[in-house]
Design a protein that fits this description.
Elements: H1 3-15, H2 36-50, H3 56-61, H4 65-76
């Protein structure tokens, strides 16, 4: 499975949304059910799916769909 599809599936599963809502506006302040539980699930799924271990700074910085991709590209060499 290509990385962008894998990444989208994670967000769709964690937040119970369709792929059509995943864009730059999908972020912590705009998603009603983005809470600490969903944040932990998101981190866990990303780490497992991409075989990475996010550091604390990255976990705290993972506040949007686009920011997550940016972190994975810049720090973990995951290409989208």
């Amino acid at each position: 499975m290509e990385n962008v599809k894998k990444y989208n599936v994670i967000f769709m599963e964690v937040f119970s949304v369709g792929e059509e809502v995943l864009n730059d506006e999908f972020k912590q302040g705009n998603v009603e059910n983005w809470n600490s539980i969903h944040q932990l699930n998101l981190v866990s799924y990303i780490e497992e799916s991409f075989d990475v271990m996010l550091d604390t700074e990255d976990i705290l910085g993972l506040t949007s769909y686009s920011k997550g991709k940016e972190i994975l590209v810049s720090k973990y060499n995951i290409n989208f």
